[in-house]
Amino acid sequence: MERHARGAALFLLACFASAARAATAIPDGLLPNGNFEEAPARSQLDGTRVTGRYAIPRWEISGFVEYIGSGQKQGDMLLPVPEGAYAVRLGKEASIQQRIALTRGAHYSVTFSAARTCAQAEQLNVTVAPESDILPIQTVYTSSGWDSYSWAFKARRSAVTLIVHNPGVADDAACGPLLDAFAIKTLQPPQRTKSNMLKNGDFEEGPYTFLDTAWGVLVPPLDEDDYSPLSPWMVLSSTKSVKYLDAAHHAVPRGARAVELVSGVESALVQDVVTVPGRPYRLEFSAGDAGDGCAGSLAVQAYAARGSVKVAYQSQGKGGHTRGALEFTAIANRTRVVFVSTAYNVKADGTLCGPVVDDVSLVCTREPAARRLLL
Q1: Which residues contact 23 (CB under 8 A, 6 or more apart)?
Q2: How does pLDDT run across 138-159, given as a tens digit for each residue?
Q3: How far does Cα 20 stand from its chain's mean position?
Q4: Which of 55, 92, 120, 160 is the most exposed place for a label (fewest CB within 10 A)?
């Protein structure tokens, strides 16, 4: 009896400990001082340079890091801040990091804003050990110069360290990108449905989007082994991204989210799906515009197995879409579904834009013989 009581007590203690660990996991939204509005003490600043390793509340820095106020100038260039009044700038080989409590084994997406300041080929190395990726930020997709980027990872421990590092491409030690508005979101692994062989075909599961920013979130190219913020969709490219849109600020064909192919033929949105060689399939999707002023001839090219289809859409830049379909026969046990914009498009302000893809579905159009006999 005593042994059973001791076992029950240990079980309850384990449950309470588990609940306590879950309670400490950070909620979706801004990281603690993720917008850098909690400022360093004046004694920890030399002009704009932050001199203390722990001077910025909730963050740890290394190297040449500056604390930048909205409207500050770099030469003749005005440095805007996308969220609040302050941001940070990482000089060459500088980094900023924060320790975060998470749920071990869960997937997360980090969203943050970045702006290039003085180097054409600026990059950021984002790490949550053991995962790490270089995000290219040389292409600017907004007229303000600020873009929001996303990056996803699996939490290997209940506490991890998010590190953002500027590997440096300029000789000037102070030269580097501006950073602001760090947020996090727990990603729910998408599931297939009876009516769709593709997962997350409506793109409803994706990175955190800021309610007060209207420029969407970029999903950058990653290695195929990495976990995507749009999982299981991947972006294949050398340096270009696709843009994740919300219905609060854009025209979305269905639901609350969609993807804009903003990089022309330089990036592809892809997903691999299990198929049976020799069986016929039908791929359907919506193609249109985001209502963001991207006017003109927009077109999406879709590929699967040996089949392809081009769906054209004449945009007025005010929203709208059309449906496209591709019928093909599988030639392998896995088929890669690919979407790409067929041309480069720009808005009146000179920023890149492109066709919107949404509501993607894939079905087998012929049932297996054994199933037909059972019916």
Answers
A1: none
A2: 888 988 889 999 999 999 999 9
A3: 30
A4: 120
